[in-house]
Amino acid sequence: MDGQRTIAVVEDEATIREAVCFALRREGYAPDAFDDGLAAWQAFERVLPDVAILDIGLPRMDGLELCRKLRTRSQTLPIIFVTSREEEFDRVLGLEIGADDYLCKPFSMRELMARVKVLLRRASLTPASAATDEDAIVTVRGLVLDPLRLSATWQGTPVPLTVTEFLLLLALARRPGIVKTRDQLMEAAYPERVSVTDRTIDSHIKRIRRKFQTADRTFNALESVYGAGYRYNEPPE
To answer: What torsion do the CA atoms of 102, 107, 109, 114 make, to the nearest 10 degrees?
Structure first.
């Protein structure tokens, strides 16, 4: 258990804040709760947590502004947004200003705990540990994926992906042309065995496509294979 890991929970809805803190304590973490953005920032100016879980719609200082300020203090602090806003703009904006992942309300506590564990694992990796096949940079003609930094670029343009989206794309890009079933993609993207549906995987793939098409409207490397799953096709030269 990660008993020494402090997880900040910045959420103004008391029931959600208490539920998240309860789940974190059950996993062996030490939650530090705040009900507004300014109070959280004042605490973070003194000591940074190991992970920050931020609501977007916070009083006094919203989650987006809090994220910006946190990034002035640390470029590596794992940040997860939880939001009730369904607009893709809000989600992409959150990632562009430095968040690592997001979950939409209502969300599964099991999935939130899985995201926390993945981000803590990535944050704890040292440069020396990068010399493994699992963490080696993947390059597929225009696409570059860095598992240690959770960063993706397409033809030199950064593409902001959540942890889940990154892991899905990584699983496909590691074996271009090979079809991955939805079950295989679930195992790759949800290492803590979180139970998700086929529709969840489909939604993630659609978002990945949209993000790459924002960088390059001709992008079509992610292919749906009817009745089977998905594959990443290496683009022609």
So the answer is: -40
Residue pLDDT, tens place only, 5-48: 999 999 999 999 999 999 999 999 999 999 999 999 999 999 99
Contact 163, 121 (CB under 8 A): no
Q: Which residues lie closer than 8 Å to 112 by C-beta, 6 or more apart?
A: 20, 23, 53, 80, 82, 103
Measured CA to CA in angstroms, residue 203 lies from 70, 206, 207 at distances of: 29, 5, 6
pLDDT digits (tens, 9 = 90+) for 59-78: 999 999 999 999 888 877 89
* pLDDT, tens only, 96-154: 777 888 888 888 898 899 889 888 877 775 444 444 566 789 999 899 999 877 889 99
Which strands sit side by side in the sheet containing 79-83, from one edge to the other? 30-34, 6-10, 51-55, 79-83, 101-104
Which domains, ranges and CATH numbers included, belong to the chain? 6-124 (3.40.50.2300), 130-232 (1.10.10.10)
3-state secondary structure string, 122-159?
A: HHHCCHHHHCCCCCCCEEECCEEEECCCCEEEECCEEC
